[in-house]
Each structure stands twice: as structure tokens, then as C-alpha cells.
Amino acid sequence: MCKDITIRWGIIGCGNVTEKKSGPAFNKVPNSKLVAVMRRDKSKLEDYAMRHDVPLTFTDANALIACPEVDAVYIATPPNLHAAYAIAAMKAGKPVYVEKPMATTIEECLEMNRVSMETGIPLYVAYYRRALPSFLKVKSLLDEGTLGKPIEVEVELYQHHEPEKYEGELPWRVIPEVAGAGLFYDLASHTLDYLVSLFGPILKAGGEAINVRQLHRAEERVHGAFEFENGVKGVGRWMFDANYEDFSDKIVITCENGTIEMSTFQFTPIVVKRRGESDQILEYPRPEHVQLNLIDSIVKSLRGEGDCPSTGMSAMNTNWAMWSMVKKFYMDQNK
């Protein structure tokens, strides 16, 4: 695509994630316009289109992909549909921006990247923390070297989730066939992908997953260990059956001369602790549309004006690392 065009976007799956995080951003980024949306439920589709002033509506994803007025496709469905729609769009010659996790399996990720390379059509993934100012600030702190060499990273996410309140209809995020695994895939993917952006690909990963309450078949707790290309070692604890009062969302990066503490989801202040100095507190407000910066980088990439930091190739490593941590849990289920 050339620099003098506006990228016209179509969204497949206009659910909650598109209401504020992403959808409005397509019209706020320069040289970008949201022109079409697809949802199977026609009444919800028409309501979304009216509220967001979208001119074209479709109840069939393939019809949106084929629409000549759509230049690029954003896929915001549950993960079990990512690969099929992404591949169809790329084969139709249309760049794809797909929600995270990239797909349900590493095999699907491999096929998506194969089609991208075969067709020459770009594939991007919605790991938007790679483009947010607060997360970029931490990267710059590490790159400037005053904290010394990074040594290890510790991740902790404790949440309380109550699938028993869904009256027999479980949310898709805890249905492995739809989500790829459970809430671990939905939430840990953000943290792990961001750490990959700091330290390089994860080369080794393993872990243990358990389901204590047996309210669904997905994992509720994961303890993982992993190692990055640059030698940094990591440990992670994810718990989705924690008590409300035990909520935790933190990343602690330990370097030779200090630490950086931050959160993945809460946008709490970044705390930089340098040996022998007072703590440095860095505050960044939560953006109105958290995906706007990444979408802007995609539009610039498509127009030949820059690069996007989150692609199908980078995102595939995150899928591999997560599966490495939970695969024994799922393989044991299938014995």
C-alpha cells in the first residue's frame, strides 16, 4: 500500500473488546477509517454500527472479507476463529490485525504465518502494550543501562473468577476448545509477550497447571518457569481462584543495580529502585483507547511509513511458551 491512501478497516466480531479498547481508535488514527463491521446477531450488529457510525454491516465474515471497500481486517472473535478468518483475509489480499492470543494452538500460528509469508500479506497481533508509553518507558530504562544487566523477572497475577454465576453457560474464556486453554491464555499472554519485547524470545518454558474447584475444564492456577534469549530467567504465578482480598498484578524485574516494579493491567505507578538512591515513581494514566498506539503503528506500516512491533512471528513465541506451561495438564486430561 502507498502513503497517500486511507486504510479502510472492517471488524469481524464487534464484541466488548471493540467498544472502547480498539474500535473507536480506527477512526482516531490518522489515515485510518472504520467502514464495516460483522456480527452474527443482526440486532446487536445494527446497534453497534449506529453507535459507532459505521456505514457497512455484515452478518457473514466472508462477505466482509470480500467487500471491495474494506482494505484491512481486524479479527476480534474468540481465538478458535482467528486462524480461519485470518487465513481467508490474507488469501484475499487483505492485511490482518488479530486479537490475542494469536490462535488456540501453535499449529494454527504456524499456518497463519506460513500464509502470510506465502502471500506477502502482513499479519499483526493485538499485543498493544508493546506500543504504550508506560511500557516503552520501562524498555528505555533497561536499554539505557543505569540499572545494569537484567537478571530475572517475577510475574504474579491473582484474580477471583466466578464461572458458577453464569448459570450453566460458561464464558468462552474458560472453554479450552474456544480459548485455547483458560484465563491463563487470555491474560498471561499480555505479560509474556511484553517480556518477550524486552528480553527476546522465550527459549525454554515449563510449568504446572491445576484446577482446584472443578467448575470447568480449564486450568485455574499456573506456576511457570521460563528463560529468554538474553539469558534472563523468569517465574510466574497465575491464580484465577484467589480470594478477592488477595488480588495481585505485578511484574518485578531484577537487575544488577536495582529493580523495576510495574503492573500488567492496573496502570499503577512504575517504581524504579536504584541501589543507594531514592525510589523513582513514574505515573502514566490509562489511555482512553489502549490499542490506539499499536493501530497507529499498523497503519504507518501499511503505508510504508514505519514498522509495527507486534507481528504474527513475534506473537507465535508467546503461544508456544504458554502451551509449554500447561500442556501436561491438558495431556493428562486426554489420557
Fold and architecture overview:
- This protein has two domains: 7-127 and 291-309, 3-Layer(aba) Sandwich (Rossmann fold); 130-288 and 319-333, Dihydrodipicolinate Reductase, domain 2, CATH 3.30.360.
- The chain is 34% helix and 24% strand.
- It has helices spanning 16-19, 25-28, 42-52, 61-66, 82-91, 106-119, 133-144, 176-179, 183-199, 292-302, 312-333, and strands at residues 7-12, 32-38, 56-58, 72-75, 96-98, 123-125, 150-158, 202-210, 221-228, 233-239, 248-255, 258-262, 270-274, 280-282.
- It has an eight-stranded mixed sheet, covered by helices on one side.
- Strand 13 (270-274) and strand 14 form a beta hairpin.
- Helix 5 packs parallel to helix 6 and helix 6 runs antiparallel to helix 11.
- The protein is globular, with a radius of gyration of 20 Å.
- The model has no long low-confidence stretch (mean pLDDT 96).
